[in-house]
Amino acid sequence: MNLPAAGTAPLWVQTLKVSTAEQTHALGAALAEVLRAGDLLVLTGELGAGKTTFTQGLGEGLGVREGIISPTFVLVRIHPNLPDGPRPGGPDLVHVDAYRLGSASEIDDIDLENTLDSSVTVVEWGRDRVEHLSESRLEVELHRSIGGAAAAQAAGGSAAPGGSATPDAEVVLDFGAEDDDEPRTIIIRGFGPRWADQPVLKQASEGTP
């Protein structure tokens, strides 16, 4: 299989705004409705950007076992599908934190290939580490309004497709550890034949998840 290179341009980019943690959760749940076994998501965002809240929404939408937290200290957590949940017989959720993994070869060492085809796999900090696992992926990038894209732009960072900013090497993204109700920008990029068509995700309105 000839997999796309890490730098391959996305087929499409969707930018959404959320105002609350509840809306971040709801957006994850909405995205879960179009996910199926074998899908790979690469999740990027500093502390407090909403990665865990978003993944909790994915888990709710997929109907997997509750208790999704950051997998930082164990690298991988598997949340099995619930027979009495909203999607009985659906895929499990495999939640990975690749922050401490320095290369694609270290990703291979944790044997994600064993669960990839039967699960939805979400990899935090997976950019430039997991692209070789699948010919298709979704990249989900979360920015807080303070310290995220806006700060990068103010510091002279370059704009990436869909309105996100790519900060220069010297820019520090000053995110707090709390996932509060600060407004966020969520950028979703689709890569590969699985995502030739863009999933329809509606903009969350103020006060409505």
In terms of topology, how is this protein built?
Blueprint: E1 12-18, H1 21-32, E2 40-44, H2 51-62, E3 76-79, E4 92-97, H3 104-109, H4 113-116, E5 119-124, E6 137-144, H5 149-154, E7 158-159, E8 165-166, E9 184-191
Parallel strand pairs: 2-5, 2-6, 4-5
Antiparallel strand pairs: 1-9, 3-4, 6-9, 7-8
Helix pairs in contact: 1-2
Notes on the protein architecture:
This protein has 209 residues and is of the alpha/beta class. The protein has one domain: 3-Layer(aba) Sandwich (Rossmann fold). It has 5 helices and 9 strands, in the order E-H-E-H-E-E-H-H-E-E-H-E-E-E. It has helices spanning 21-32, 51-62, 104-109, 113-116, 149-154, and strands at 12-18, 40-44, 76-79, 92-97, 119-124, 137-144, 158-159, 165-166, 184-191. Helix 1 packs across helix 2. The termini are far apart. Mean pLDDT is 80; it is low at 148-178.
Q: What is this entry, summarized?
A:
The chain contains five helices and nine strands.
- CATH domain class: Alpha Beta
As a percent range, the share of strand residues is 15-25%
Strands of the biggest beta sheet: in what spatial order?
Answer: 1-9-6-2-5-4-3
Radius of gyration: 16 Å
Order of helices and strands: EHEHEEHHEEHEEE
**Number of beta strands:** 9
| Second-tier CATH architecture | 3-Layer(aba) Sandwich
State the helicity in percent bands.
Answer: 10-25%
Largest sheet: number of strands, sense, barrel closure: 7 strands, mixed
Keywords, separated by commas or semicolons:
209 residues; alpha/beta; Rossmann fold; 7-stranded mixed beta sheet; two-stranded antiparallel ribbon; 5 helices; 19% helix
